[in-house]
Every structure is written in C-alpha cells, then in structure tokens.
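Weekly structure sync - notes
Attendees: PM, LS, DV (DV joined late)
Agenda: review two folding runs queued last week.

Item 1: First target. Sequence and structure tokens pasted below for the record.
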Amino acid sequence: MDEKRKSIPRRMAEALPFVLFFSGLFFFEAQVFGIADALLGIVFLFFAHTMVHEPGLSVRNYAVRVAWFLVMALCASLAGLHPVAMVVGTGVYLFLVTIINSDDYLPRNHFWLGLGYLMLLVYPVTLDEIAPRMCATLLAIAATTAFVFVARYLLSKTGELDVFARDRSWMREALDEVGRQLVSLAEGRLDSIDPRRLFDLTQQYASMEYGTVFRQNGLLSGRQAYTFALLLCVEQVAYNIRAASNNYDKFDEQEKSYYRDLSELFFAFGQGRIRSVSQFASELNAFLESHHLDVVDHDESWRAILETLLRTVEDTRLSHDNTTPLLKSLGYRLYYLRDNVNLRNTQTRFALQLSLIVSVAMTVDVLLTAYADVVFGIWIPMVAFTLINTYSDETLRSTVRNIAGTILGLGIFVILVNVLPPEVRMPVAVVLGYVVILAKAGPFVSVAAATQMALGALFPYATLGTTLFTRLSLVVIGALCVVSFMFFLLNTRRSATVRTKLTEMERIDVHLMKVVQKGLRRGYVNLWRTVQLLYYMHLNAGLLSRLSHSMEKGQKGLLGKRKQKPADQQLAADVNRVLDLNYRFTMDAAHAVVLLDPRRAREDLWRTGAVYPDTTGRLEHLDLTAEKLDEELHDLEGMRHLEEGE
C-alpha cells in the first residue's frame, strides 16, 4: 500500500517496532557509555527505518552506508575537541557529506549524516573518550544491522520487499496500457493513442528506483537494467502504434486482426492470465511465427521491435542481480562529481550555502556557550541545519513551520509536566515523540514532537519557565541565522536548477548520439550502456517537467498565495518546448537502439541460437532514424540560449 494512503494510526502501529528498538539501544548505550553516546540511538533509529524499507538492498550498499556513519562519529568526535574545530570542521564536513551523498534528485539524502554529526556535538568528548565513542558506534551498528536484516526477513515473508514482483507489476501495467492502445488502433479510435503514457510510466519507474541507483554510485543493477530495458521495448511498441495509426485508412481486416491478436497477448500478461516470463516469451515467439503483415515495411518494423522485446524478456541472466561492479560504480561516481561540482550546479551551491550558514550558527553557539554560559547552544546550528532546503521559498516555509511547531511543542510540554510524574516524563516524551515522527503525521506535528525531547533534556538544568524561554530563543536565533544569510550566500533558485539540468540533458543527448552513431558503423550498440543513458534521459526529463510545472504555476508564499514571475513562466514554457523535442529525440534514439540490438545475431546470447540477418527494410529504417536524430539534435543545440545566465 502507498505510504501516503495509510491512516495515521496504522503508521503509528508500524512505527512501534522501530521505537522499541530505539528505546532498547538508547537506554542500553546510556547505561554502558553515558548519555553523550546514547544519542547514537536516535541516529540509528532513522537509519534502520530507511534501510528496512529500502528496495533491492544489497550487502555492499548497506556496508557503504554504515561506513559513512563511522566517518560521521569520528568527525564529530574530533570536531568536539576544540571550538575552532567545531566551526571549521563542521563547514568542511557538511559540504563534503552534502556534495557526495546528495544531488538534485535526492537533495536531502545527506540529512541524517549531517544531523547525526550535530547531535554528537551536544555532548563533546575528550581525546580519551573518542575510543569509547567509536566502540559505542560499532555496537549501535551491530544492533542496527541485526534489527534491519531480521525486520527485512520478516517483511519478505509478506511480499512487501519482493522487488522482483514489484518490477513485474510495472511490466503488467505497461503491457496492459499497450494492449488498450493496440485495440484502439484496430478499432480506429486514434485519439486515444498516446505513447507518452508509456513514456510517463517509464519515467515514474526511473524516479522510484533512483534512491537505490544513487546508493549504487549511479549505476543500474542487473535487475533495474533488465526491467528498464523491457519498459523501453514496450515504449517502442507504443511508439510504433502511433506510427501505424498514420496509415489507418489503408488497413485491411488482416492487419486489424494482427493488432487485435497482439493486444490479447499483452492483455494476457498485463492482466495476469500469463503468470511467468517464460510463458510470455513462448507466447510471443508463437505470435511471431504465426503472424505477418502483407506490407513488407510494416511487417519488418513490427518484427524488429517484437523480436527485441522477446530477446530482452529471455535475456534473464541479470534479472535477479541487485549488485553493481564496485570499481566501475566508484569510477562512475567520480566521473559524475568531476562533471558536476561547480558553482553553476545547484547542489554545489546548496552544499556551500548549507555549510557556511551552519558554520555561522556554530560560531554563535560557541560564543554564547563561552561568554554567556548558555546550555545546549548546539541547538542553534541544529535548527539552522534542519531549516535549510534547496530553494529559498522552501526554506522560508520550513522556518515558519518550525517556529510554529516549537510553540505548539512548548504548550504540550507544559501539559506533560503537570500531568506526568517526573520519573516517567522523559521515557514517555521520547517514545511518543518518535512514534509521532516515524508515523509522518506532517512536518508541523513532527517539530512539536521533537520539541518534547529537547525540552526533556534541558528541563533538569532549569526551571520550567527558563526551559521554555531558552528553547524558543535558541530556535529563533537559529532561524535568524538562516534567514539573514540565505539570500546572500549563493542563493539557489529553480531557474538555476533548470538551466543546470538542461546542460546535463544536452550532455546525455550528445553521449547517446555518439553511441548510436558508433553503433550504426559497427552494426550494433553497447546495449547496457545505452540503457544507462536512456535511464538518465527519462529521469532528467521527469525532474525538468516537475520544475517547469512548479515555475509555471508560481511558488507559494508564506501565506499560501502563489507568486508568478513572468520570467519563470517564460522559462517554463521554453523548457516544455525543449522537453517535447527531447521526447522525440529520446524515443527515436531508443528506436535506433532497438534496431541495433547486439543479441539479434549472437548465438551465445540467444536461447534458440537463431541468427537474424540484416534486411534491406531494417537498414533503410536505420538510415531514416539516424537522419531524424541528426535533425533533432541540431534543433536541441539551437536552443542552448536557455542555458545562459539569468
């Protein structure tokens, strides 16, 4: 079930195992290592929650993520040794963590590595205490690992973590949609034929898998490449339906019957009558042997696409592989960073903004702690860190929500103080607070819940009035640090992101064109390389579409009203023109890839050992596709003015 559709009580019930795990880890570490290291329980609670529900989690990806938490604990321990190290080290650490662990698709993927680092600075340790802290971290990792894999094992029994079944559901949906469009083609209902619906479905799959892809350093696993390649083939079937519809007035009954029978085959898999991939492959092979079109060009066009679909369906050697080559994936990530870490890149600007503002907030914390004896001044940089979002309007809304949620949390805490006995107040506040946060009741409510734990930590050191005033004051100071500096420190805007992503899209276009041109000379392409490029083409187009839509509608201000900027609206309209042209380029490039499938003449990769020789029709089709790609790339290059400065 979609997380958003679940009721809050159900989400709270599902959060209870995580809170029980956290409570055990938190209080055990508090007894063994002290409260300074017990805060690791909070960090690993949210890490566990993410990892338990991570689709296609591999042991290597999990180990890499764990290694980052070891780095976090060590950096926080070293930064706490001196005030200067706290200020400078925080800036450097947050910049590197943000730039390496986040990008425009996952802008807050760094969040718990950053907030966990700041939490460990609530109680800085001495040089002699670094070793115990690392031991506490290793213990927390061991406990979390055991919890994560036991929880995943239990969830796997329910089918919730069966990514292969989930991928198959995407294929069923895609084939069902293509089946409907084939029926529309056979019956002459041409207005209901739209290959973009398949393109959108493929984009949604690309976006859904991106979190896992990112943690694989940007490379598709075998499973993801297999499923995405199948979706690309189905896209091409839909694209061919659109092309065939142009000749509907020339259809005879035999051709209409061809499309009806093909639709029944797709419906059979899409609606579950065919349950296995092997059965679908067998039925598709039988269809190819028994069905032909009288018009040779049409027959060759359909046969080329359906044969590629058949070869892709049967090429299952990687379909259950959730891993990626380590060295290749590291090289790919370094290549990405080299190309994208510059001041034109939105995420680079955001990482600099985040690190600089939190460093300023940390400086305020150090000064207040040293000269005004403020307790828990570390809340200032923590508040600043949690408020900063990629775009200014998001940050302002987050600031208002945080202050309002804090005020609500102060009121709730007053009630708890007067209702609950002192000995149970802290455990109740902690447990209920995290149940509410994990239930994702909303950012406003989550801030109010988190405020209970912060106040519970401060209350033993001061009166109720002082506790409430101190918390509110530190939150306001942290918010002022953000608001005062965010408009001056490399401010990021959606229009800048759009131009950056247009540049990235152009690079992908050029790379894809080079691969296709090389394939035309050799007679085949590097199949999985082209699948990787087409994956990012779909992903990038999806992000650009969402950005242009948000700019076109205008952004919500603090009072909920939308403010529309004519320049943003014009840019959004221009971007939509680029996206439309790039859609045609992507579909034609994928068409060339389908026709240049290297498996078509290789016995070692083709189950039946059959060799499909080149035909005149196929070669002419390739020539026409290549000409269209050249024209479309030329048109795209003619729109480079969109990438210039604002």
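Item 2: Second target, run right after the first with the same settings.
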Amino acid sequence: MPENLRLLARKLGIATEFCDAGLCKKNYGVSDATLRLIASKLGYPCGTEKEAAASVERFDDRRYTEVLAPIYVCREDNVTFDIVLSAEQQIGKVTVLDANNACQELKIEQNDNLEERTIDNVRLCKIQYAVITPLTPGYYKINVRIGNKIYKSKLAVAPQYCYQAVEAGRRLWGYAVQLYAVRSKHNWGVGDFTDLAELARICARCGAGIIGLNPLNVLCHDFPENASPYQSISRLFLNPIYIDVEQVPEFSAADKQLIEGLLADIRAGELVQYNKVYPLKVKMLEKCYKRFCEQPEHGRLEAFRQFCREQGEELDKLALFQTLYESESPKVWGGWKAWPQQYLSPQASGIVDFAEAHAERIGFFKFMQFEAARQFAEAKKVVDELGLEIGFYRDLAVGVGKDSAELWGNSGMFIPDVGAGAPPDAFFPCGQKWGLGAFSPQMLKEMGYEPLIKILRANMKNAGALRIDHVMSLMRLFLIPDNMDEGTYVSYDFADMLNIVALESHLNKCMIVGESIGNVPDGFIDALCSRNIYSLSILWAERADAGWGGFFAPYDYPANAFVSVGTHDMAPLKMWWFGYDIELASSLGMIGCEEDKRNAYHKRETDRGLLLSALDAAGVWPEDRPRQGNYIYGEGYPEGIEEAVHRFVARSSCPVVLVQLEDFLHVQKQQNLPGTDRDKYPNWRLRLPVALEDLESDPAFVRNVAAIKKER
C-alpha cells in the first residue's frame, strides 16, 4: 500500500484492515481502491501518491485555518478549548452565554501542550486552555477577544454520566412491541397511538414499567409497502400510519360509516396490509385537513401554527420533500436523485416556485405530523398519569434511507455514494449491506453536531429511555461503496459522540441503551458502562464458547443491561424450538446445502438440551407444568417452557427485562428475517394473534405475567 495513502487513511479514520465478528476470527486487508474511493468521498482526493500527499498536508493544515474550532465538546470535569494564534497575538477576555443568554466571564489557564505550524510563511500556534470556572452541563456560546476582534464558537459541556431513571436495586420489566403489529378491535388493521395508550394501561395493571417500541419515524408516503421502520425518510418525525383517525377532532361518524366494509377487509388476516390501510388513512386525513382549514379561527389552528414554528426548517423540508416525491415519482424512476435539476435540493432554483404552487399539499403533510405528534403526546400523558417508571423506550435507527428527506435536505452532511453495513459476524456470516446514509465525520463536527443533536432530541421526545441501534456507530461505522462489495470502517470522534449523547440524555431526562450485537471493539462496552449507558443482552447470546456452550445462569448476566429472550430479528421461542427458522432459511436458499441444514438441526437439538438443563438448574419450571422429558424431535413443545424461560431471564440482576408478546402467545413466525425483502418474506407485517381487549384474559398471557412477577 502506498505510504501517503496509508497515512491519509489513518488521519481520516479509515481502517486499512479489520477483524470480523465471526466464530473464527478473520482479518481482512482493505484494497487501495476502496481506501481511495472512501477518502475521496470524504473530500480528500488521493488517486496518485502526489495527490495523497497534498491531501495529507491539507488535512494537517485544516485546524490552523480558523482561530476557533466549530465546537468544543467536553466533560464537565475537564472543560478545555484550543485557539490558533499568530506569534504577535494574545488572548483576551473569554466569556460564555448559556441557554438563557446569561453572560459569564471565564477564568482560564493555559495548558503546557503547544503545537506550531507554518502556513504561507506565517508561524501559527495552537494553544490549549483549561476552563477553571465551573460550568454546569449544557450548551454555551463562547466568545474570545483577541485584540479588537471577538471570535465565536460553541461549547458543549457534558455530564460524567447519562441520565439514570431507575433507582439502584430496582428490577423492572415490560414489553417490547412492534407498534404496527398490535391488534385491537378499534384500530384500522395497524397499531396506533390509541393502542399505545391502552398498552400503557395494561402495563400498569400488570405491574410493568416500560414499553419498548420499534422506530416510529416517518416512512415513504408514496410506497407504503416499504415498511421497514429502520429505513425512514427522516428520523426527526413520526409515521402518520400510527395516527388513530377516529381520534382526529375533524373526523366524523359519517366518515366511518362510508368505510366500514373496507375496514372489515383490512382488519382481517395475519399481516398488515400497508397498501390498503395507509392510503385509506391518508384519504380520511385529507378530509379532516380540509375541514380543519375551512373552520373559522380556532384553537387547533393556532396550535398547528405553533407546532410549525417550533419544528421550523426541518418540518418545511420534510413536507416539501414529500410533496415533490408525490409529484415526481409517477414521472421518473430512481428516487429524488433522478428529479429535474431544479428540485435536487431545498436551495435549487425551482423550489420556491414549486412550494408556492403546492402550498396546500405541503400544509397537509405538516398537518399529519402535527396530529401524529399530538396523539403521541396524549399517549405519554397516560404514561405519566399511571406513573410508569420508564414509560416509552424508543428506538433510534443507525441510519436513514438514501432516498430520504434527510439526505435530500442536507446531502452535504452525508458521505456520498457509500452506504452503511456490517462485516461478517456470528449471526450473519456473509456480512450485511444495509445501504443506509452515513454522516461524514468531518462535516458532522463542522456543523457543531447539530444534525446528531436534533435526531437525538426528536427520538427522546416522550421517552424515558432510548435504544441506539448499532451503538458502535458512535465510534465507527462499516461503509461499503455503492458500486462495490468490499467495505471498511470509518471512525468518528468517539469522545465527542459519547459526550453529546450524555448531554442530551441529561437535558431530556432519558436513559440510554446501546444495541451492541455484532462486531464490538475491545473495551467498547466498558466505555459505554463508564458513562452509564446500558447494553442489551439476550438469552441466546448469554452462552459459553461464543454460543456453542451452555447457557449462563441468571446471576451471571451483566448488571448494566436490558435483557430479553430475543429480538425482532430472531425466531420467537416456539419457532426456535421446532427449528422452523432453519427450514425457512433453507427454503429461501440462505443455508448453503443439505449438509449445512442437517448440521444446523443437530446443533439446535443440542441447544434445546442445553436450554432445558439451564431451566432445570434454575428451578424455574411452573409447579403445575414440570418438565416431562427430553423433548427430542417429535415429542412436541414443552408445556410451560415459555413461562420457565421468562422466569429465568427475569431472575437476572439486569435492571430491566423486556418480553416479547410473540413469545407469550406462541407465535411461530419472526417479525423480520434479515437479508430478505418482502418478495421472499413478509418482514415488518406480522400482526399479533390476540387483540388488546382480550390480552389480559388470555391464559398464556396471564401465566407468563405471573411467572415474571415471581422474580420481579
């Protein structure tokens, strides 16, 4: 590998080699072509050694081109900033403005470290200062006087720890729910915010304190079958499909009568019919919006205006993007990048005229966000009234779809022509190409982390805890060029990212949980733990010998984790027991040959025996349903095993246990089969078999709740 290319990659945080997370660790070298492409997409061309050398020099010079950095992110126990001065300059008074614009002069002290660089024959010094004046966690505007000039920057002061909602020693439990999957007698074939409020009431009656939710972010309006909650068009706003249309004040009983027959069809069946339910909701909401606009001045209209003012430019961009997409998708194929030149960004030449011509439609898309936010807030009020200790536990997706409002609205923030994915690991030995947009590390810092801050705040809204999907992305993200299969890791400023997360957690009073299944760097979990960020633990991963040995006893589980039996990407307990997931993977060509399939079944038989032994050792079988045998294939499903398994994980020292209703209710299909689209498997569509109104009288539900409450 050419030396300047290697040096540039190191400075940009592009890994020249990496190790996978497979059962047998394998090291990978990264090709020069991949390094050159990713470096160039980060803004540093390196097609030749001379070009790479020039990029290295430009990278080294960049901090010396400005007196102050765009932002300084620090912990409250070590607040520092650096400043670039020429030899004849001296620093003067330093002041900060807090969030309330209160001004305070800072006492500072120069640190010993001093760096120098000569640019255009001018010797420049970069000097670091420590802030002696105590500053409470928050965001500040920092002003530094040098001579007769004042230079400005931002200062983010983070607490040492993320917010802690659970008192030491408390052992809570609750449900992990795919909201779209919730079945009720009132909803329109897809779970909604009214169902969410009812779930909170069920939690309170059961003694549960948390409801884990899939990402609730807005998806593609024009293609409702693109239903993955992890492929949103904006992580700043909600999916209108969760609006309970019957609770919109402008909806009428006459509207309901006109669609009763259609509702009966949509409510039938085991799958969410996105291509029917979403257009129906939109049609009814359009009627509501027309009435909303035709009414004389009223309180809801002013509340709507206030909502639009608060959401500001980001809501403007989302509604404009959705209106443009609706207009252009019948004409061109290929998403927003295939639109005419005058529409390719919010600043493009044709945008103002388009917005004026389509003001009513843009207003409608804003109205849907207004109503979704109102109904979600109403569900949160129920949580608060009931006193649930954590309440809603939201999920922040690792990235955003490339054909999205986020990329269209701020494409310079994202690395072009690459997508986020994952290298091989124990669960996905071929790796994964997610194709999600990824922030540029340099641009993220250049913008003072504002895009990240906005996303964190939006997803902490109404939440007592936030799950950060693929939390390793705070440190590094595996990027794969769009036109290649090979990828590599690109690093972010881990200290800055952790501090921003901790600060937003503190300001929003929201616990942080990091999903860390996959290729986890050494020491990473300890770094999260040191900041009071919880990890996620699952029964299937709490085993010896990288998943080949016995199941750990409950008292060996990590004390700083949220624990569950599985996830939405894994087979529910009954499906796992019978090996239906193996048969499914084989039928779809995801298992290479018959021998691999036989080996998978043999391992599953061994795993079943190991699970039975662990449950025996823990003594968690129901008294009226003791274990009856070894249950080799053909002997059926052990009566009471789901109760035993839930009691087993509930006995752990983990502060929070999350249970999936699919396990309670003996569901034999999984919500999502990674590596497939809906042409092969109905991902993100499976509805729960029992309606909310019948849940608390369902025998399996009653028995499983009782089993958990024996331990919690």
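Discussion on item 2: DSSP finds 22 helices and 25 strands in the chain.
Action: LS to circulate a short write-up before next sync.
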